[in-house]
Design goal:
This protein is mainly α and 330 residues long. It has three domains: 23-145, Leucine-rich Repeat Variant, CATH 1.25.10; 148-240, Leucine-rich Repeat Variant, CATH 1.25.10.10; 246-304. It is 66% helix and 0% strand. It starts with a helix and ends in a 25-residue tail after the last helix. The model is unreliable at 14-20 and 322-330 (pLDDT under 50).
């Protein structure tokens, strides 16, 4: 074969490969970000976020000023996907100043993915936003970022008349896991809403501060089973087995999540009686997720008791029977 036909064959092969691969997706998305049609710009923002390419950041930052809120919200989400720490100041400006609450909410969520503590100030400011979804998103983000500086601001939310806001606040305080939050969370164990009380007990378990023990002990007598089992679990995480009777009762709860929490508690601080209770509960359990939790708790407890998988729980020693004195016949 001469050089000319060989060169032509190489060119043809390269062209075929280029056609098979199609246009560069990043270039196409960057072009779409400048399109006149807003839906095209929105789709382009989605593609740029999925690209995971830092070169997409300038185009997305420009879309934060788009005329259409759904384009701006998608740009916020995409910057979060790209973990663009350099975009934190611009997203902070969106969180505090965009006219559309959906966009502000998207900015708060983006901070979770970016994971930069520099966003804490803007998120704390958003706790006073006029839209509840924005406030809730900001609280969740502060929790995920473990922003210790936000403890006081989140504690203030515990006086909010909206129970759902109070519940999100105590959850965020638990994620931050600062001992400074213990007084506020202990107070929340007396909240009028059972969901808030249960979440407060769960959060105190995450912090595992000794000072919370008396409040959790009182919560073992709460009128709501979910609160009682969360209090038992929180005590167990601190090595306190005083909630075991509550956990044993909760293994028979109609609620699967309550049974799971009870199993976890028994696995942490149970004894031979606890292993027997877990074995009995597992034998009748129908929920697959709860079965898995019970299996894990049983293995955990067996390991702590020094038992093999095949061995049975040690039986309680039988008390010797008192011999009866035969009556004298008269």
């Amino acid at each position: 074969m001469t050089l000319r036909p060989l060169f032509a064959a190489v060119v043809l092969l390269a062209s075929s490969i280029a056609l098979a691969q199609g246009p560069d997706p990043l270039k196409a998305a960057l072009a779409g970000a400048k399109a006149s049609e807003p839906m095209t710009r929105r789709q382009a923002a989605e593609e740029l976020g999925r690209s995971r390419n830092p070169a997409a950041v300038p185009a997305l930052e420009k879309l934060l000023g788009d005329a259409h809120p759904f384009v701006r919200a998608t740009a916020c989400e995409a910057l979060g996907q790209l973990r663009s720490a350099g975009s934190v100041p611009m997203l902070a400006a969106v969180l505090s100043g965009d006219a559309d609450p959906r966009v502000r909410q998207a900015a708060a969520v983006a901070f979770v993915y970016i994971g930069d503590g520099a966003a804490a100030g803007a998120l704390m400011g958003a706790l006073k936003d006029g839209a509840a979804p924005v406030r809730h998103a900001a609280m969740r983000a502060l929790g995920k970022l473990r922003a210790a500086a936000a403890v006081e601001a989140l504690a203030a939310v515990l006086t909010d008349p909206d129970a759902s806001a109070r519940k999100v606040a105590v959850s965020a305080l638990g994620e931050i896991a600062s001992k400074e939050a213990v007084p506020a969370l202990s107070s929340a164990l007396s909240d009028t809403d059972a969901g808030v009380r249960a979440e407060a007990a769960k959060s105190l378990g995450l912090i595992a501060a000794p000072g919370a023990a008396p409040f959790l002990a009182s919560a073992l007598k709460d009128g709501d089973a979910g609160v009682r089992v969360q209090a038992a679990a929180a005590l167990a995480k601190a090595g306190d087995d005083s909630g075991l009777p509550v956990a044993y009762a909760a293994l028979k709860s109609a609620d699967a999540s309550t049974r799971q929490q009870a199993a976890s508690t028994v696995g942490l601080v149970g004894d031979a009686k606890g292993l027997a209770a877990l074995d009995a509960a597992r034998a009748v359990e129908k929920d697959a997720n709860t079965q898995g939790m019970m299996d894990y708790a049983r293995a955990q407890l067996r390991a702590r008791l020094g038992l093999s998988e095949s061995s049975k729980a040690p039986a309680k020693k039988a008390q010797p029977k008192k011999s009866s004195t035969p009556k004298e016949s008269h």
